[in-house]
Amino acid sequence: MILSAQLDIFERFKATYSVLRPAFLAVIIGSACAYSVARAEDNLEIHKVPAAALEELSVAIYEHLENDHIVGAELLVVKSSQTIMHEACGWMDREELTPMEPNTIFNIRSMTKMLTGASAQILIDEARLSLDDRVSQYLPGFDNSRSGDITIEQLLTHRSGLPLSTITSLEELDQFDDLYSFANSIGEQGPEFPPGSKFWYSDAGSEALGAVVEVVSGVTLDKFVRERLLHPLDMNDTFYIAEPEAPLDRFASLYIGTPGSWEKWWMPGEPFYPFAWGSQSLYSTPMDYARFVSMLMNGGTYNGDTILSAEAVDRILTPVSVMTNLGSDAPAPTGFPFTEVYYGQMSVLNMSSDGQLQVFGHSGSDGTWAWAFPEHDMMIFYFTQSRGQATGIRLETDIDRLLVNPEYGPPPEIVEKYLPYLGTYISQSPASMGEEFTVLIHNERLAFDIPGLFIFELNDPPPEGGRWYFKLDAQISIEFLRDRSGSIAELRFYEPGYTHRMTRVSN
Fold first, then answer.
1. Are 59 and 66 in contact (CB under 8 A)?
2. pLDDT at position 37
């Protein structure tokens, strides 16, 4: 049993919507790491990366596997263009007992957006497309009073006002012959908000951008991406699912559900995307995606060839809007301390308080994450096919602590301030009986760790006392209770409609 808040909050924060979600099925958890590639010790020495830090990062992922937070995973760490860690554990298909192996092929979902965006940037570099162009110049479905003012730049930055999606099931795609007709229907439906008025993450806008690439280039989106990105970048293990040469035996099955309750929802060979989408539909490996990200890290070049201009890379990595959760105006969560999540032109950017880019990349809603750290010349890729979990956001905290800022510790005055509350608490409430929760310091704030979900920062109560409210959701709060000696003995966890009582067992 888990906190009901674990589901309620997650529904608002997860990476994208679910379609055709079937009933959950209890699946017996499998074994430990199925396959592991030895780390290159020479590379560790050259790049001064502690082997113990990588080992601890590996253990963190293994614990997610053991706790059934994920079905399987692959982790790749690249430092100064050298692989220093590449591991896989768990299952590619749990029911078939097929182990996850390095270079498994994953549905990367919204990580496709970066390549769709890069395709548009290529056309901008070639002066065949302009950021200021109206989408209606290319898609007649946008030539109306509601959609007519939407620009290419607004599609790239998710400021078009278009909805997250215009479909609620994959069957609805049967009415469309191709991406062009799908995108025109989006323009005919129109935006939910005035174009340019605010950030609103939109798969629909990404479909429109992909269709514009098709119109301007004269070829289908998948062909353009293959010819201008995949082939030049040696991304030979990246496919659109309909490609006949795709090696289906290397594709991971997709699981959907929540930690502890996974059902296989798709397996290789079953139909999925009828044509290439702008928002998703690419399948790739961590190593292949690293080639794309390294091109951006190198200012648009790969092996001496220019893929994108330096100006295009700058456009991609320049923050435009504070990124919000899907279907919400609440800021997107992150595990990287002292950063705020922004969105550029089809890129997720973690910015410091002084406006410096700390991390860039993207995630995919089937459980894939890519992070690049320009100041550290490092890239990390964490791929799963467990849709409905947030272990990647939790891993961000581990990555920062182990590999990015290993010397950092909260100031003594912060430790002294929050020390009375720190420790492990065990739930005594029926809805979460026996579960352990931790109160800790995160981002120099008091925080509440919900296993399998996030570490939630808390806002300090007023000076006169009271509840500690979640920074990301003011409907949820914590109250600490003291015993006769004045020490914190238990807490109350308040969420709409339910209160959980937890006793403190350690500090």
1. no
2. 44
